[in-house]
Amino acid sequence: MIPVCRIEDLPEGESVRIEIDDTTPAIAVFHTESGLYAVDDTCSHQDASLSEGWAEGCFVECPLHAALFDLRTGAPTCPPARRPVRTHEVGVVDGMIHVRPAVREDALA
């Protein structure tokens, strides 16, 4: 798992974008009233950073065209997005938020 930040450094209602390496897409980590979530940072509809969107409960709204994604599953809940974003495992160990990036399907080929 990759350390992100201390939980007190990511207040409820905030998000952070992390970049791991040149081969892994950036990940947006959200701290909402419903918990901690991590998804690919780029909206599946168009090139927009979801970490700059508006998160509430288990959903994030893309700042570009208002596509809404379920942070639990990555599924879009309204147009214009039609494809899901990838979700990632999030955990807290000794007060530090960690993310385990999901394996990219194209990396398995």
From TrEMBL:
CDD domains: Rieske_RO_ferredoxin (cd03528). GO terms for molecular function: 2 iron, 2 sulfur cluster binding; dioxygenase activity; metal ion binding; monooxygenase activity; oxidoreductase activity, acting on paired donors, with incorporation or reduction of molecular oxygen. InterPro entries: Rieske_2Fe-2S, Rieske_2Fe-2S_sf. PANTHER family: 3-PHENYLPROPIONATE_CINNAMIC ACID DIOXYGENASE FERREDOXIN SUBUNIT, FERREDOXIN-RELATED. This is Bifunctional 3-phenylpropionate/cinnamic acid dioxygenase ferredoxin subunit. It comes from Streptomyces gilvosporeus. SUPFAM superfamilies: ISP domain. Pfam families: Rieske. The keyword DNA repair does not apply. NCBIfam families: PRK09965.1 (NF007422). Keywords: 2Fe-2S, Dioxygenase, Iron, Iron-sulfur, Metal-binding, Oxidoreductase. Residues 2-99 form the Rieske domain. Gene3D superfamilies: Rieske [2Fe-2S] iron-sulphur domain.
